[in-house]
Amino acid sequence: MAVTGRKEEEGKKMNLLYKSTRNAEKTVTASQAILKGLAEDGGLFVPEFIPKLDVSMEELKSMTYQETAYAVMKQFLTDFTEEELKNCIRNAYDDKFDTEVIAPLAKVEDTYYLELFHGATIAFKDMALSILPHLLTTAARKNNVKNEIVILTATSGDTGKAALAGFADVPGTKIIVFYPKGGVSRVQELQMVTQKGDNTSVVAIHGNFDNAQSGVKAMFEDKELEKELAEAGYQFSSANSINIGRLVPQVVYYVYAYAKLLENGEIEENEKINVTVPTGNFGNILAAYYAKQMGVPINRLICASNENKVHFDFFRTGVYDRNREFILTSSPSMDILISSNLERLIYTIAGQDAEKNARLMAQLREKGSYEITEDMREKLEDFVGGYATEEQTKETIHDTYARTGYVMDTHTAVAAFVCGQYRRDSRDETKCLVASTASPYKFIHSVMSAIDEKYADADEFDLVDELSRISGTSVPRAIEEIRNADIRHTTECDSDAMKETVRKILGV
Q1: Domain span at 321
Q2: What does the pLDDT look like over 310-330, one tens digit per residue?
């Protein structure tokens, strides 16, 4: 009798369900959450609890990236069969990455850089967007979806190309990406507008990333549009980090990095590390927080911002305030004032109180700001905020190269500066892992002019071979491909015309 009861209990544990951050009543399976992208009430899907790793670090340290991915993701995506999940992982983490280990670690002086930019679009978004199309199409089959799935995405630069590359010509899907005209690097823009695939559409909006993101969220919440699409045989889903199918794969590389530091003898068993993440939409650092909740010995989560320091101010004051000037910087993927994924953390520190979270999100929408309670602030002790100015970012790239020969991109430089500043100010000697989120080739003009001002007036593509020479690295395939590629997407629209543009693209 006791054995049966235990088995039933284990069965219940195995089935991890998801709730909206704004409605505690309704639960969905992992595959349903991935399919929907955003909850019907505008909330984000979160697991009812963060599962614990069921393998030891001793076992994890000898695992490949793919094996680690299965060990982590099976805990979150419990309605996927072993065969389904392993098939998704196998199709995602293959030779589209230019290094066999997928996410190598580079030790530079006393800091470890987790290089997340070895995928098809040379940015960390590849780590999740290589697998999301496979998770999504598997989820559609599991739930007997007959509609064509329309991936609707706003990008501040990297998500767009990674999503386009992931979904290009995937049967049963279309993808529409909106990006801010003039708000991304030249390489980022060319990567998107040269994208092949009969099911891909790219639209430049006249506005900033927050306008694009707000427009996309409004379409997800538009019931009339949902009905129109259904009648035409379509349904929306998301490739942004609001989709839990984007967030879960990001947890993997923090687990993997810790295990590899252990295997390489860089840390002792159970030794805690600090993790510094350049942060825009908060998904990447939230994944590190989830890894910590799963049992990875992480001490501090250091949230690094650029001059759009909305997170830094939030962690310092408890007030989230987007009512400020939007600054275009050399780290455009972090040029964000409305941080979608922070809502998942707010829900958590509110004690999973969906009503409380919904009230705060309504204040953000109506007034542009909200303030958390003292109790909630106390639950943020894992987090530390910091920011780097444009000058500090530039100096970090220059000085690191001058001392070591290691070249980092602008976003990684923001994190490296904030990591160093935290160490100096706190005198915390805990070993630190920095999430290196993009290849220096992706932001080549900013990187090269930081290394030497003589490059400031050079053409971006003239600098490619020079960067290869001074860094001793090969030019990534992603750069070679766009050097002479044809422009395929030229659509532009005002930010208030996004819905009409989608209707036109879909012929609705």
Answers
A1: 108-123+245-338+382-473
A2: 999 999 999 999 999 999 999
